[in-house]
Amino acid sequence: MSFGWASLGAAALVVLLAAAFRGRLYAIFATVLLTIHTSISVALWPAFSWAWPVYVYLQAAVYVHFASLAWARLRPAPYRLLVSLPASFFVAGTFLAFPWAIAVAFGLPPHGVFIPYVAAAFGLLQSVSHRPEEIDITVDGAEVASLRRHPRGEARVERPLRLVQITDPHLGPFMSERRLRKLAERAVAQDPDLVLLTGDFVTMESHDAEAALARALEPLKALPGRVFACRGNHDHEAPRMVARALEAVGAELLVDDAVIVETPAGKVDILGLDFHFRNRKERIEATCRRHPRSPDAFRLVLLHDPGAFRHLPDGEADLVLSGHTHGGQLGLLSLGLEHTVVSALTSIPDHGLWAHGKSRLYVHRGTSHYGFPLRIGVPSEESLVRVHWVRP
């Protein structure tokens, strides 16, 4: 009972701090998340009473972590190691343990209750690591009747377009300034034709971290005229900060705008579509009318949310680059299967190559994540993509 009351009191305090210092939306988010977490963790407390010092520490880390989010600032490495990462692990494992909490509610013993926490531990490792990849995709403009996954193709050209995409870095608990800078350095070392930044640079911790974001992306200055960006949904929370940081490193931010670039693989017409919460179809169509595609160039579209791909008029893009889904974030990719929570519950393209009409969509799994505390079964992506354009 004392553990339950202490947890309930800590959760209430976090909500009060959220409302007082961060605002109504975060207070609502904290209320929902901590109500669920506290209910499950208290129900499972007897099953873990043998390890009570660890369980209490993890529970305390959860409330400290979410209370600290009432103030927008990046935390140092020791704080992330001692608070943010343990809290994320415990929240993720506890949410996955919901079926065991239901069993306890019906008076059943929670056999195997350690399983969700083992999965969360595996997810924690996936969430702090990258697996470099090289990917070849063929873009041939063949007509595909309905939106579906598409094979990468086998046709090859002598000089493919070499792309590095960085999406959803989410500077914060899992993506430190140092880690993002290393990613940028490795991107430059690949000597790509283009580096495409497809949005969601920030988290609640990094809304005021303009200098840190600029320092992290600073290596991209070594590729002048080759770095282009669009905004994601979270970038609308700090739009001026993101724009200034990108400008500082020489990245051209395309907000419903287009530019034509000469590359060793030929001319590329880049259209950057902004993230729109409302009237997406009308806004995308209007932007395409303002910026008709160049007939002799490869048309590359930056579109953070792959859910909006279906609104792109057919023929307006050879290839669309998206992120947003974090590859599905929870799924079975690590087991060699393509299924994720996103594909199971929605029709939104979650990862890999897709096709609709004459356009192709590549959904990057993301360099970090946000929202649900961990990746589980869906590794992050650090890739060099070679695009083989076979003109129809």
Structural class: alpha/beta
Number of helices: 11
Low-confidence residue ranges: none
Give me the CATH superfamily of the largest domain. Metallo-dependent phosphatases
Look at the structure and give the mean pLDDT: 96
Provide the helix percentage. Answer: 25-40%
* Extended strand count: 13
How much beta, percentage-wise? 15-25%
Strands of the widest sheet, in order across it, are 2-11-12-10-9-8-7
Task: Describe the largest sheet.
Answer: 7 strands, mixed
Overall body shape? globular
Q: What is the CATH top level name of the largest domain?
A: Alpha Beta
- What pattern of helices and strands is seen along the backbone? HHHHHHEEEHEHEHEEEHEEHEEE
Rg over CA atoms = 22 Å
- In CATH, the architecture of the largest domain is 4-Layer Sandwich
Tags for this entry?
single chain; 392 residues; alpha/beta; Purple Acid Phosphatase, chain A, domain 2; 7-stranded mixed sheet; 6-stranded mixed sheet; 11 helices
Note the topology:
Layout: H1 2-21, H2 24-44, H3 52-68, H4 77-96, H5 98-105, H6 115-127, E1 132-139, E2 144-149, E3 161-166, H7 177-189, E4 194-197, H8 210-217, E5 227-229, H9 239-248, E6 252-253, E7 257-263, E8 266-273, H10 280-290, E9 298-303, E10 319-322, H11 341-345, E11 352-357, E12 359-363, E13 382-389
Helix pairs in contact: 1-2, 1-3, 2-5, 3-4, 4-6, 7-8, 8-9
